[in-house]
Every structure is written in C-alpha cells, then in structure tokens.
Amino acid sequence: MTDMTAETPAMPWYANRFWRGLYNGLPAIALSAAVLVVWEAVIRLFKVPTFVLPAPTAIVESLIANARPLAFAAQATALEVLFGFVLSAIVGVAVALVIVRFERFGRALYPLIVLFQNVPKVALAPIFILWFGYDLSPKILLIVVIAFFPVAIDMLAGLQSVEPSFVSLMRSVGASKSKIMLRVRIPHSLPHLMAGLKVAITFSVIGAIVGEFAGANQGLGYMIQFASTQLDTPLIFAALLVVSVLGLAFYYVVEYAERVLVPWAPKFDPIHSAG
Amino acid sequence: MTVVAMNVAAVKPVEPAAMASAAAPAHIAARNLAVDFTVQGRRQRVLSDINIAVPKGSFVSLIGPSGCGKSTLLKVMAGLVAPSEGEMRVAGLSPQQAVKARLIGLVFQEATLLPWKNAIENAAFLLMTADETMKRGEAFDRAAKMLKMVGLEGAEKKMPSQLSGGMRQRVAIARALALDPEVLLMDEPFGALDAITREEMSECLLDIWERTNKTIVLVTHSIDEAVLLSREVHVMGTGPARIIETLPITVPHPRNEASYSDPAFTAAEKRLRSLLIESHRRGRK
Fold first, then answer.
1. Would you say residue B236 has pLDDT above 80?
2. Interchain pair A165, B108: CB under 8 A
C-alpha cells in the first residue's frame, strides 16, 4: 500500500483557497461593480440632483464625514436589536414549550397567537411609544411582537416532528413525558429553532428601525428620519448601508451559532429535512 | 441426535415448541387477546382472538400481509398499546410492569438514532434513560460491549450520518441489547435494508440470539428471514386480523447459509408462501 500522506503533490495555483474564492465570487463582484459604475455615470450624465438620488461616491463621502454619529447610532440600534432578539427567542421558545407541554392550554393559545400575528405590528409602534416613552423599552417590545412568531412556529414544528418511534422507544424504558421532552423533543427541535432564529434576527433589525421611526432620539432609524427632514439624501443612504451591514453581521452571528450548536442540522437537503 | 428429533417433528408437525411451552410457562403469553382502535369515531377491531405462547429463549416470527395487525401485536407486548380484551403476559407480568422491570428491548424499522449523538452515546442512551443512577462509564462499557457484539467495534465515535443503513440498525440493536432485556421485540428491523445487508443482519441476529439466549419476537415481511431465524412462525391474516396458523420451523441449528438448502427450510418456505398467498387473496375479497 502506498502512503498517501508522506508526499502531498503540489497543488496547482487555482486549487488555492484564496484564488478559488475569488474565482467563485468574481461574477457577484463584477455585477456589483457594474451597477455602481452605471449608477455613478447616470447621476453625472443626467445631472440628477443629489437630494433625489446621490451618486455612490456622494454616499461614501457622507459615510466618512458622518462616521462618528453613524457609529453612535449603529450602537444604539444594535443594542435594541440585541435585547429585542434575545427576548424574542426566549418568548418564542417559551410559547412553543407551553403549547406542546400543556396541550389543552396550547389549543386555546395557538389561535390567539396566529390571530395576533395578523395584526400589523407597525401600527402598534405609536401605542408602545405612548405607553413607554422614547427610550429602549418600546423598541424592544416592538421587536418582540414582530420576531417571536417565527421562533415559536419553528420550535413548535421541531417539537412535534419527532418520529413516533423515538417516543415509543423512550416509553419502552418507562421514560416520563417530561423526560422525553428534555432528552428527545427539545434537542430534536434545535435545528428548527435555529432556522426560526435566523428569520427572527432579520425581523429584529426591521423592528428596531420601525420603532425608531415611530419615536426616538437616537439610532439609525432616527438618523434616517432626521436626514430626510434635512433633505440629506446621501446620509439616508449611508445610514441604510450601515443598517444593512449591521443586519448582515447579526445574521452571520446566528448562522455561525447554528453551525457550532447544531452541527447535525441538515444543510440544503430538503429531502433529508422532510424526513 | 437433536437433528434427528427435529426432522421427525418436521414430518409430523406437532411442534416441539408447544411441548416446551407445556413444560415451562411461556415467556410471552397472550390469551384471547383483542385490540380495538377508534379511527375517526368508529371502533375498529384490529386484532382478534390472539393466543400465543412464546417459550423462554425462543425465536418467534410474526408474518402476514400489511394491515394484519402484526405490528400492533408487537406493540401490545411492548406495553405501548393496551389490549381491549383478554390479556398479555410478559415473563408473568403485565407489559407495563415488564417495561418497568426493564425486560423489554425494542428495535424498529428505522434505526431512530439521535443525530446529535455518536454511535456509543446512542447505544448507551436508552440504558441511561432507564437507569438514572447508572454511571456514565458503566453505561458506556456495556454499550461498547454490545457494539462489539453487533460487529461495530471501532465505529463507536462515528455519528449516525456517517454510518450506513445496516450499521445504523446494528447500533439500534446494540442499544436494545445494552438494556440487557429478557425479551427483544423487533418490528421489521431489516425492512429498509438492501438484500445483501439483510442477510448479513440476519446472521448477526442469529449469532446474537445463540450467544445471549434472549426471547426474540420478530415482525417481518420476508419468508426467508422468518424461516432462517425462527423456531416458530405465526402466520397472520386479515379480516378480522388474527393468527391463522402457527408453523414450527425444524431447520437444524446452528443455522447459516447452508440452511437455505435444507429440506425442512424449503418445506417451511413453501408452506408459508401458500399460506400468505391464500390470506392475501382472502384479504382482498
């Protein structure tokens, strides 16, 4: 038998991770660059006023000029997102557990939650401001009412999709309902929970911005609104860019957590996850 | 000598198993057992008039067309379904008591391994659930022994997703054996495996049975499997679901590949096939 590990054959340059990544990312990079170039060209050629649509360079200029206030605003928004998201996760998981564990109560609760989900949450923002004022709490509350639902629904699906034979096995050694819940149902539902959390984190960012629109004295949403009263469109776009990057960062943190916490979760395998 | 005795029994099918059960009390016994299910508000009899006596240390198969209630009968033995009439006794206890006394091990068609646990953790899982006081090390030792018995030595650390279907099923068997139950109840354990893997698993199971001397009840669709493995095959029919015949299998032990060409094997196989075809036909009427 030949020893494969002794001598690693020289890899061709295109097998290198960096070059492969660049090669795979090339179409996306090229398209983005093209869009930016066309955008810039159109603004300059047709002399579009900056307050209508700023050129990419103007947005970047504004971003640099307002770096400090944007950073402060991002910090405020990030805090709301973080608290709101964590609370949404807790509420969502609790709701799912209560519905499964207390079947009768769950049957009463579930339709109410679905009904509540159909209330336009954005319309609740002014009420929360009215109740709690301008500080952190109304934003967090708004995030929770928007973001707990996907968590609850996915967790519920996970808890209930345990194969009956698992339950039979546990019962065959005399395991109680709560033991089955703790040892089988809850761990089994974790991949589903993570899917729900990924939706919830994007909802949380939306909730924070909406909450700030409704009434705030800091945060990116507040900054966007303030900039719009000043017709400072480049700043609006700069703030939007920061919001997007913030959202993306949060999303990838959750996705990373998923990979670490539930490595057995099926990945892009609809057949597997359906079974 | 025993071979001769068994061949005599083959000619005159008054079963040695029945004689054994008359001598010793049956390990698993059903008397006038019936099970009703309520399906959409209508009561339905899914098993009727079941009388079964499985001697201790025997290997018995339940075979029959789909919907003949063979899985339900197994579930009654496992205490998962309560009988509507009659009674089931496992080692002289009710199935629920037998469960409490950890006398029962279960294996299903799907391996049902926990995907977040590796092979040995899965094999030890039920044992640790059944006995909270057992130390992790002790449970793992037993699980490791059982994994070795089912031929999975060296695969202890593998995750279920890294195991083939046959290997996953071996883990499931090891998990049941780790409980050290007196009775092993198996519901089409090899049903989802390919033909070659099935044969391998059959041999593995025969080996386990010979070494551990557990009472095994196997639900299967496969005539070959039933004949190769069992001392006794209960043929079940539909409408109403019941046992239509109990056939002793007199193929001499130890059984292996050569057993397939044994005259007792072919005779039993032929008899089972005609019984199944007949019951299948009647079921369709």
1. yes
2. yes
Name the one residue in this structure whose structure tokens are 């049902």.
B112
Q: Which residues of chain A lie closer than 8 angstroms to B75, CB-CB?
A: 168
Smallest Cα distance from B60 to chain A, Å? 20
DSSP assignment of B238-275 equals: TTTTEEEEEEE--PPSSP-GGGGG-HHHHHHHHHHHHH
Does the pTM exceed 0.90? no
DSSP string, A47-82: T--TTTS--HHHHHHHHHHTHHHHHHHHHHHHHHHH
CB A199 within 8 A of CB A76: no
Cis peptide before B13 (omega within 30 of 0): no
Q: Which residue has the tokens 């299998």?
A: B249
Which pLDDT belongs to residue A83?
96
pLDDT score of B10 more than 70: no
Specify the pLDDT at position A6.
53
**Residue B161 contacts A, CB cutoff 8 Å:** yes
Question: Could you tell me the pLDDT band of residue B16, with boundaries at 50, 70 and 90?
Answer: very low
Which residue of B lies nearest to A172 if distances are taken between CA atoms? Answer: B99
Residue found under tokens 């001397």: B213
Interface contact A188-B114, CB threshold 8 A: yes
Asked if A198 and A255 touch (Cβ cutoff 8 Å), the reply is yes
Length of chain A: 275
pLDDT at B66: 79
Which two three-digit tokens encode residue A199? 């939706």
C-alpha span between B73 and B65 (Å, rounded): 14
Residues sharing a CB contact under 8 Å with residue A95, sequence separation 6 or more, in sequence order: A109, A113, A148, A152
Q: How far apart are CA B126 and CA B124, in angstroms?
A: 6
Q: How many residues make up chain B in this entry?
A: 285
Closest CA to A246 of A270, A223, A215, A273: A223
Contact criterion met (CB < 8 Å) for B106 and A262: no
Rounded CA-CA distance A56/A42 in Å is 11
A167 close contact with B: CB closer than 8 A: no
User: How many angstroms separate the CA atoms of B202 and B188, rounded?
Assistant: 12
